[in-house]
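>> received
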Amino acid sequence: FSSLFQEKVYPIDNMFVNEDVQTDTFYIIVRGTARIEKDAALLGVAQPGTVIGAFDALRGSTLWASFTAESPITALKFNLSANQKQLKRKPKLLEKLWLFAGFEMAERLLVKVEPWASWRAKKLRTYINSGKVHFLAPGEKYNLEKGTILLIKGEVTEDNEKVLSAPALLTGAHLKANMKSILFVLEDEVKEV
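>> returned
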């Protein structure tokens, strides 16, 4: 699986990801830091381990933000088009790629919501890295008594009331998929780091 990624190095001040551009490529920062900007406003800093663009690439949507190297960046780059043959031969690979989208969306959504917004970055990253992807068929139900669920693809009905489309942070314990859907599930237990 790792052979499908290319290692790329970007110099300081290189904008290696541009917002509002459609792409089929995503990155995982291995070394260095990058400014995260949307509409020229600084949103934060991406660190090693940050996944960039997986959610947008897998959905075929435009990139949500720009990323500019603050220090020299080493990143792993994955291009969906270049790996299309392997993805068709081994559908499980595509399922693994949705895990990266889950990591990315969890980081993007949870940093804005308590209690996660007040967590240290390392604690949040450890929590997010424990996440698992669940694939639901239309009509399939999913129950979670303890934990956090992010809808990363599709549409679900939450607690037989509210219809939600991806991306969404789900608060209900009982879900029913209205179409093929993908959940990113995080357990509530997190150890202090």
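>> DSSP finds four helices and 16 strands in the chain.
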